[in-house]
Each structure stands twice: as structure tokens, then as C-alpha cells.
Amino acid sequence: MEAFDVTTLGLLLFVASLVAMATHRLKLPYSVGLVTAGIILALLPLGIALPLTPDLIFFVFLPPLVFEAAIQIPWKPFRRELPLLVALVTLGVILAAGLVAVGMHWAAGWSWLGAAFFGVLIAATDPVSVIAAFKSMHVESRLHLLVESESLLNDGVAAVAFAILVMFATGEEAGAAAVGIRLVETIVGGIAAGAIVALPLILIAGRTSDRLIEVTLTMLVAYGSFLLAEHFHCSGVLATLTAGLIVGNYGFLGSISDDGRPAVLNHWEYVAFLANSLIFILIGGREVEMHIWDVIEAAALATLLALAGRAVAVYPVMASFAGSALRVPWKYKHILFWGGLRGALALALALALPASVVERETIITVAFAVVAFSIFVQGLTMPWLINKLDLRVKTVAKSEDSPA
Fold first, then answer.
1. Do residues 120 and 349 lie in contact, with contact meaning Cβ atoms separated by under 8 Å?
2. Which residues are listed as membrane-spanning (predicted)?
């Protein structure tokens, strides 16, 4: 954080602006251009430090990214899809993490603890470039909802599972009862923290029609909910997700003024743009420091296992809903599978691995390799796949389920 000074920030924002203009003109995913720019900056003899730390990702970048996505999720269709989403982010994450962990233990020789940590962190998805492609290509609304909602919930579950593994790694009591209690505390506490922060601040926002104050209060909601949950060792992701859903649905229905709503949405769109820009440039800069060729076999194996794990998390789980009203078209399944990119949260968890994990440095390097593959290969091919599957709507109309 000390190396992340104002001059560096200004340079990165200038680079991000140029990359945004170039990728828009070239019709390339924004994240790919940013990571490439980060790699170039790191290779140039400019003497610029590009720090990427768990605290920077968790406490600076992650809250606004989760909040910005959550305030745009309409409650009615989200509630309708919730059984499917819960199955994807519980059973799906368990299956994906388990397959990766077993594969890395038996094929790469990693310890069970190291393999389990890697399986959990690499199960966390971050389809930023996919969502960007959805917005520019106007894909069907249900697909957009499923991908974005599943990613947010997926991140929360992966972070919770990671916290449980830390109990084992640090020698805390980790019996079945202790793990169960910790699991409930983390999830329920996170949801409660989001509601405790969001509801009173939204009520205060209802006492004013000044859009600048309303925007400020939503900033307090986003960061306050995350920090409160993390202070009590609960899930900050679930807290901010809950707070975002409250603001985006209940808040927009009355507490936030008619003038305030577009101001809030525009503000958070800009904040998310800044956070994503900085994250992906920093990822590119850190990629240069990784000695990926030293672990290329493990990285290749991990990439294949991550794809296989994602397939197991998507296709069988969704198949169980085939006979219900929540059945999912095969086209959607393919997008959910290939669009399960890995990004900032996976790297933050990797960098936060306890020192007691024997394979810690190897896991960090391999995680960066898997993230690079997902950004450059999956991210670049996603627009082509959307067109190939003919998932674009012909006319763009406002959905009836959009938040009022």
C-alpha cells in the first residue's frame, strides 16, 4: 500500500483510460487489455511499483465490486432463481473444489491441506469481462442474472470455505461441531451485518433528496457492511451482497429519491470501473513476477482440473432441475461453464494462504497461471461463443423485473 502513491495511481488511471478506448475500438474484452497493459508496465524500466496484496483486494476493491453488481440485481427474478443458485454455489462449489483438490493431491503430489486450499480458492469465479460482454452485446436477461448472481454467491461461499480451512491450518479446534458453528456464524453473521448497516442508512437517506448525500450514504453502506462483517470474522462478501440487494430494491422503491437513483447508479458504475481497472492492471504487473515456467506442469494440470471442476459444478447440478420450472437451456449451461473465469478473489485468497501450508508459494504461482488462462483464453473467446450460441436479444427493452 505504501508504494501505491498518487503519482502511480494517476498513471494507472491514464493507462486504463487508453486501454478502455483501444479495447472498445478493437472489440476486445477490457480485462484482457488491462492485464496486457499491466504486464507491459512491469517490463518497462519505469521504476513503478505495482503492489497487489490481499488487503488491497479485500478491503479496497472487493466491496465496491460486489455492491455495484448487487444493487442492479432485481429481487423478484433473483428470488425465483434462488433454489438453482443455492445448488450451484453449495453443491457446485463442493464438487468443483473436491475434484481439483483430489487431482492436485494425487497427480501433483500436493498435501491434502494445500490441495484443499487450492481447490476452494480456484472455485471462486470472477466473470467481469463476461458481464461486460453481456452489457455490450445485450444478452438475454435471465442468462445475465444467472451468471452475475451465481458469481457473487459463489465468491461468498468460497471465502467461507477458505475461512474454515484456515481453522485446520492454524491449529484451531476443528471438530464437526466447531466447523458447523463457525459455518453458521460466518454466513448468518455476514447477512445480518449487511442488513444492520444498510437498513438504518437507507432510512436516513429517505430524510433527504440531496443526491450527493444519498451517494455518500451508499458508500458507507458498501464499505461499512463489509468491514463490520469482517471485524466479527463473518463473510464480508455476503454482507455487502445483502446490503446491495437492500439498497437496489428496497432503497430504490422509496428511500432514495428519483434524482438520486441515477446518480447512485452512475457513481457505482464509475467506482466499479476504477476498481476493475486497477485490479487487472495490478494482476498483469504481478504476473511478470511469477515464475510460471518453473511450475508449468502443475499449472497446466491445475488449469485442466479447474475447467473439469467447473463443468462438474455446472452441468450435473443444473441437470437436477431439468424437470422443474427452473430448467436451464443448454446454451446457458455452456456460458456458465466457459464464463466461470477466475480473477481477483482467487488471487487474494492465494496470497492470504497461511505460512504453514507447505506448497504456499507454488499455489500462488499456479493460481496466477490459471487466472491468466481464464482471462486470455476464456475471456477472449466469450464474445465469439455468445454469438455462436445466438444469445443476443434482437431488441433491447427494459425488463419488467428491473428494480423500480
1. yes
2. 6-23, 30-50, 56-75, 82-104, 110-132, 152-171, 183-205, 235-256, 268-286, 298-323, 335-357, 363-386
* Domain annotation for the chain: domains and CATH numbers: 54-388 (1.20.1530.20)
The kind and range of the H/E element at 273 are helix 260-289
Joined grid coordinates for residue 202: 437507507
- pLDDT at residue 366 is higher than 90: yes
Query: Is pLDDT of 396 > 60?
Result: no
CB 95 within 8 A of CB 105: no
What does 126-181 look like in DSSP terms, one character per residue?
--HHHHHHHHHHTB-HHHHHHHHHHHHHHHHHHHHHHHHHHHHHTT---SHHHHHH
Is 334 within 8 Å of 389 (Cβ atoms)? yes
| R_g over Cα of the chain | 20
CB-CB contact of 257 with 204 (8 Å)? no
- Whether residue 3 is predicted with pLDDT greater than 60 in this model: the reply is no
Residue type, 188: V
Enter the pTM of the model: 0.89
68 pLDDT above the threshold of 80:
yes
